[in-house]
Amino acid sequence: MLSDLGGLLSEWGAVLLTTVNWAIRIAALINVPYRRSADAARGWLLLFFVLPIPAAVLYFLIGRARHPKERRERVKQLRSVLEKLTADTSDELRACRADIAERDLPISRIADAIGELPAYDGNEVEVEGDYDRMIARLCDDIDRARDHVHLMFYIFAADDTGEQVIEALRRAAGRGVTCRLMYDAVGSLRSADEVEARLRGSGVEVRAMLPLRFWKRWTRADMRNHRKVAVIDGRIGWTGSQNIIRAKSGAQPNKELMARIEGPAAAHLQLVFLGDYFLETGDIPNGAGFFPLPARQDADMAVQIVPSGPDYPHTSIDMLFSALLYHARRRATLVTPYFIPSDPLVMALRATAQRGVDVNLIVSAETDSRLVDFAQGSYFGGLLEAGVRIHLYEREFLHAKHVSIDDTLTLIGSSNIDMRSFELNSEVVMVGYDERLNARLQEVEEGYRAVSRQCDAEAWRNRPLPEKLLQNMARLVGPLL
User: Fold this and answer.
1) pLDDT tens-digit series, residues 29-65
2) What CATH number should be reported for the domain holding residue 445?
3) What is the domain range of residue 459?
4) Element at 149 (helix H, strand E)
């Protein structure tokens, strides 16, 4: 009797489990593709159909690319808040709007559609690829500050590298300069307490961005502020790939690239910083010196700052990458530490190479993640067949993120060419419209190629079968990485 009852319960349990599994799968089919790229939707749906219940739990935790309601309400106010900030200098800043050449105007329009910031003329831009020299130059800029220093970095550590910046901030605050530091709560998780302790009592305002919260103010751990921004006195700005940490691959620091901008475009990096400050606090600090009258002098580089992320939901930064490729007429070079592209970007790479443009992709021979290594390798075959040249950088970890197109267009920033940067992270890039800046970036890229191994299409086709299988399996979950 008892055995019959046990068998009946077991049978009903199996029926219930099967019903729940299929209900979850059907619900996933309805909800997952909504407002999500095809790549990410495929990855999630595969997970739902293989492991429905674990997938449902994971999707509840990290499946929807949106911030808490309180932050979303602040996003609605962001534009008007930023307009009020620049009201006193709007006429002067409007006079700095760049007259972009007709051939590059479509790129500027797309960049404006993404970040809602126009290109400004009258800038001087330097690229800095030496890890230690960038830190020294940033500290020098902080030491020269007279009004304020605003720093925002994904990672800010209290190691030997971070200590240099901490001491510069302490010196600046000591002489009456207003200093604010914001870092990502997850990116800087290991060092946050120590950084705050080192700056406590110094007069430097320190804030964690996107802190992890639970229940009603639930914050997703994978949606991060990945930007790297420094603004000094509203006149000098830094942005690019480098964090404030001694990031190493072996004995060598990562290979990075930062852009130092002096001129009106620094005002837009200031807006990015203050916008994130408002989204975190609901407040805007007072500062008459945030937007000084632009000093154009003899500088004449046209520069456009392009923020992106879940707080800019209308368009994605991958549209800008694709547009740059379709815009290329002679050459295009892309440098990224992580390469897990969207389908439209893959098509743009293939189409650009097949119409005769010299397309070069430079990535590290090994990243800091074996799963990413396999996932990005799965894309190489089709690109090689289309004529894309792929270069595997074989020295330190290549963490730089930049693009050069023909002889005039450049892009330098924090965005990787992967789905995390395209859909989940807050990023910022600088687009340059200048031949000298483009030529300098080409020199940097040529230095990368000199120590890289170029992939051979035939050798890639003949790679070992286990490697192919691992790459294809990793590609299935690539959009979720």
Assistant:
1) 777 776 566 666 777 777 787 887 877 777 766 666 6
2) 3.30.870.10
3) 317-480
4) strand 148-153
